[in-house]
């Protein structure tokens, strides 16, 4: 039971974490809407990013001081416009200053932190943040739509097994945050993500085992009957479909249907659907397949 719970935690945490990050950065990105024109500050951050990318950490440290001076100088005028948005950028600013000035230098960590700071400067409409999160957020928050009393009972009944799993996950997240802050090796981030991917691969397919499939991303128009026509064409190809998922971005006239098939059937179905006029993105193949 403990191993199962740990696997589930490692599967869910990276996906949920980054869906959450997407929401936070999208929300933070609305800063310029409430803080006025910050284009001059964006220019400084872009300069620092360029120097870090070129490996000039000394130059980056000097230029980031210009950011610090300009940001602090503008605090009195900018902060009252929207204290919440200002606080978001200020926290990202502190992280960027520490990362760029770190000794020894950590360019990879600095790039990540600066990218987060720059994201906070972009102009987006705040109500769009949930829409931008899209299908990924919906996938990892389905449990939130279920009965809380039901899940309370499940969690309470399994508290003894959950406690060490959640404690382990909490410690992993602490290491992850330290890596994001430049206080730990960047490898912590990759290890965390790799474990999530490994955990996902442990989920058995509909026939059991760890069978891997090729995914054909088929582009469909958002018009009545398109999904039915796709399924009919796939059925006419006489190829067994192992799994299907659909992604659709709000406001867009198209969607993408992900069709999972056995590797030995992928090329045949791809050719058949192409012949029926379907637009298909490059297939997603498991890493161990040619």
Helix/strand layout:
Blueprint (H helix, E strand, L loop, with lengths): L1 H27 L2 H5 L3 H15 L3 H17 L1 H4 L4 H18 L6 H13 L9 H12 L7 H10 L1 H22 L6 H15 L12 E8 L4 H11 L4 E7 L6 E8 L1 H13 L3 E2 L10
Antiparallel strand pairs: 1-3, 1-4, 2-3
Helix pairs in contact: 1-8, 1-10, 1-11, 3-4, 3-7, 4-6, 6-7, 10-11
Protein name: Prephenate dehydrogenase
Pfam families: PDH_C
Question: Concise description?
Answer:
By secondary structure, the protein is α+β, with helices and mostly antiparallel strands. The protein has helices spanning 2-28, 31-35, 39-53, 57-73, 75-78, 83-100, 107-119, 129-140, 148-157, 159-180, 187-201, 226-236, 263-275; strands spanning 214-221, 241-247, 254-261, 279-280.
Work out the number of β strands. 4
Q: What is the 3D form?
A: extended
C-alpha end-to-end distance = 36 Å
> What summary fits the major beta sheet?
4 strands, antiparallel
Strand order of the largest sheet: 2-3-1-4
Our count of domains comes out at 3
Strand content: 5-15%
Structural class estimated from helices and strands: alpha+beta
Order of helices and strands: HHHHHHHHHHHEHEEHE
Task: Pick out the low-confidence regions.
Answer: 1-33, 121-128
Specify the number of helices.
13
Helical content, roughly? Answer: 55-70%
Overall pLDDT: 76
CA-atom Rg in angstroms: 23 Å
Domain Prephenate dehydrogenase dimerization: 111-183
Pfam family, one: PDH_C
Organism: mine drainage metagenome
Protein name: Prephenate dehydrogenase
């Amino acid at each position: 039971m403990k191993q199962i719970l740990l696997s589930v935690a490692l599967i869910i945490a990276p996906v949920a974490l980054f869906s959450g990050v997407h929401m936070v950065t999208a929300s933070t990105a609305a800063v310029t809407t409430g803080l006025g024109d910050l284009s001059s500050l964006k220019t400084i951050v872009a300069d620092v990013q360029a120097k870090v990318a070129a490996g000039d950490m000394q130059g980056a440290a000097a230029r980031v001081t210009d950011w610090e001076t300009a940001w602090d100088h503008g605090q009195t005028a900018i902060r009252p416009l929207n204290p919440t948005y200002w606080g978001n950028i200020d926290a990202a600013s502190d992280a960027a200053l520490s990362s760029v000035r770190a000794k020894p230098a950590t360019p990879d960590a600095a790039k990540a932190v600066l990218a987060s700071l720059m994201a906070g400067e972009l102009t987006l409409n705040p109500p769009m943040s949930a829409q931008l999160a899209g299908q990924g957020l919906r996938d990892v928050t389905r449990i939130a739509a279920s009965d809380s009393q039901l899940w309370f009972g499940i969690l309470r009944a399994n508290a003894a097994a959950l406690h060490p799993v959640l404690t382990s996950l909490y410690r992993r997240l602490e290491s992850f945050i330290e890596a994001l802050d430049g206080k730990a090796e960047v490898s912590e981030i990759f290890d965390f993500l790799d474990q999530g991917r490994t955990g996902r691969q442990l989920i058995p397919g509909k026939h059991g085992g760890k069978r891997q499939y090729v995914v054909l991303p088929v582009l469909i128009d958002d018009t009545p009957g398109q999904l039915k026509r796709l399924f009919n064409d796939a059925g006419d190809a006489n190829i067994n479909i192992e799994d299907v998922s659909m992604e659709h971005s709000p406001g867009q006239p198209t969607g993408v249907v992900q069709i999972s098939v056995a590797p030995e059937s992928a090329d045949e179905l791809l050719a058949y659907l192409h012949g029926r006029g379907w637009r298909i993105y490059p297939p997603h193949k498991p890493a161990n397949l040619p």
